[in-house]
Design goal:
The protein is an alpha/beta fold. It has 22 helices and 31 strands. Strand 1, helix 1 and strand 2 form a beta-alpha-beta unit.
Amino acid sequence: MICTSLHHKNLEELFEALDSPLVEMAEIRLDLCPLNNEEIEELFSSCEKALIACCRVDGNDMQLWEQAYLKMETAVKAGAAYVDLDIAAPVSISQRVQKLAKNCPVTLIRSYHNFELTPDDDYLRKAVLRCFRYGADIAKLACMPQCPEDVARLQAFYRAGFAENADIVPSRLLMFSMGEMGRESRIECLANGAPFSFAYLDQPCAAGQWQLDDMHKRLYGDWHGVFRNDFQAPCSKSFAQRAIVAAALAGGTSRLEHYSECEDNKAAIGFAKSIGARVRHGKGRLIIEGIGADSSTKLEKPCVNVHESGLMARLALPLLSVLGSDERQIKGEGTLLQRPLSNAEEIMAAFGILLKNEDTQHKKGIYVPLSIKGKFYPGIANIPGQGGSQLISGLLAALPLCDRESKLYVSEPKSIPYMFMTQDVLRHFGAKIDCELEGDAQMLELQDWTYCTGINFRIRPNGGYKAADIVLEGDWSAAANFLVCGALFGAAEVQGLDCRSVQADISILDILSDAGACVAYDENCVSVRRAPLQSLNFDLSHAPDIFPIASIFAAFCPGESRFAGVSRLHNKESNRADAIVQILTQMGVEASIQGNDLVIKGESLSSRMLNGHLLKGGKYSSRHDHRLVMALKVASYAADSEIEIDDCACVGKSFPGFFEQMDN
């Protein structure tokens, strides 16, 4: 990335400069800009781009250093992404800035400057280590070369200078030579892995510095990135399907606002109609007249076609068990017919229900099409949660219709947020469901579900669901593709998202933030901008649907990223674990599965462009998986040639308008 140095500008001039799309991030020279503390606070609190707060002081005048510290403190507390402190700062100032950086979400740069020469390698090594010893997240070294060999020596540290220090990776080093002799090193450091390099807007800060337009052309050529503020999230199909089912069961007329069509939502509507509900479409609205189901309701046609929706299959299974009589059937089509319903036989047997495959080709496990036999008995049951949340969601939807209380204990739960979503939607329609989590209370309070060992659900009879009018949430699964596009290639705003949502895939915000992207949001809009990225470790066991797009994102995060939860990917529309590794490998990205982790070796966009490491274009198989198609489309913005996808139509399963929005 290019960091634009801004100096000798007042507040209005700084805002004007920051409005330029060429300014990806900026260094604000607080020692050279005539800003008071109020203006510093306004600047750093209102700019969504990554800003570096920098305040240089020559000498050891403590009064000047105190003034510099106050400016940096104001900037950091207002929202600076980085603070840059010279390693020669007085000890007391150094300690206070380190403490400030530790207590605030800011990246600390410790700088070493030598304006006369480039010291020998041993001295340079010690300077870098000293930067890290005194709190640096990034060590910056800028030296004056006496000969071309000095420039080469400094850049060599990226490749072999700290092999014995595993934590000192190239993305934590910013090393370049000053003066005209060092001009090229300001580009070369990006090729070697530096997180960013400096350029000037209208007047240089130092000899040898590139003008912004020139560096932009050298780095990006004709590539202009993605800058969009008009993305609109479709409604969450997970939220919509649950709401459609509840409205179909309820007594009275329900109105579901912010509805958008997709194949899985059509499957839910098909289920609603098959049990006798009436469904009408308005503009962005569904109007559903429910059947008023209760414990005495018995369906006349206990056979439904859930098409290719795995969620609908698992919601329908307990509901048909409770409402149906005699033998009931669930049919489907497409990839669903090859995806086993994990633990379904064991779970439903706990309630007196027997399941049988209708297709004799399957010798082990339960698949659609299937038949349901037996009488459903509510009560107390221990349910394994390793297979996911969808069948448990079906039980939570069915048990309130029974005539007595039930208690479920879910052990080793996965996709916990989806259970919360089910609970939340059903409560709108009058369900009485309480839950209690087991595990590390402190970590659970932080919503780290990896520390949840079990869930106790208590479901009380509700005498039937009641009609409700609700607004369907925007889909974080679909929006994740837009957000990653902005975080990698420029900027993106997505409308129609609820940042208080319990949807699992809101985790994309944590992934982007953890890696260093600039994320901002209000009640209905989320915006993301490019910033220097770093590798990350993240557990996606509870949000497996964003594995594909998170994997593309990690390909541009320098270093080794790990995503836990690979076991959740085997029974999706494709074997997503194998598919992701195959796609990344074909693109030229090193990726592998190690145990339950997907491991990806990433490289920054700047480095990829300068080193000829853009993703490889060509023909790619989506394996008829809608989420892989969307991830491939995002990847195409940084490919060396066109990415041809064999089946784009399958995005209709969740987001028919995806390509229309992306290509707008």
